[in-house]
Amino acid sequence: MKLSTYNFLTSMAIKGVKVGYPLKLTINKKDVIESEFNPVFIERLLPKLDWAAVYSAAQVAELADDIPAAQPDNMAEDEQLLQRLHHLLFEIDVLEGQLECPETGRVFPITDGIPNMLLNEDEV
Question: Which ranges form a coiled coil (predicted)?
């Protein structure tokens, strides 16, 4: 699972959950898969990102030194920062781990890079 995906996942479908975001991420095994850097794509993605979730993912991936805690205003002009963000969101691949609902504590496993977000019948 790419960390760009993590930024958009929620457990709001669980009965009684109001927000379900951001999920608590745990990484047990990760890989780095290089991909082509496209600064325009990253710039266009910026307004859609929840920066607190981005920074949280950076902390869990042990890359918090590369990503600022608060989103800079002039970020589109800082190509080095865009490259570090690209690395975090598109080159870190979570192979094993889990996502946890912040409201219910329900755990969703990540196996072979795929988050299993299927709910039990009584959770819907």
Answer: none
